[in-house]
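ok trying again, last paste got cut off:
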Amino acid sequence: MAQQKCDNCGQVITKKEIQHSLLKGYRPITCNNCGTVHQIKEISKLIIAMLVTFPVVLLVLLLSTAIGLSGIQTFVVGLIILAITIVSLPFIAKYELAKNHEL
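nice, full thing came through this time. structure:
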């Protein structure tokens, strides 16, 4: 998967910048080179919400009772799934030029 770049000057948007944006509630990313503001695409927000929610809910509601996991085991497995999901989010999130962005 190709790295995302600023639509204006072509500078690479790092995975670290994307991770910080996602963890701070989808905050826009400003290019360090030209100052262009990029915001996350709406479809990326939807995909991220599903990827964070569904695996944990599926584990807690269906698999933990079917497999017979204890509460602590379910919690630990849920945290592991959530951590893997959060680490993979910068590869999923796509950004575009911000429209009518106010600082």
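cool. The first strand starts at residue 29 and ends at 30. The beta strands are 29-30, 37-40, 95-97.
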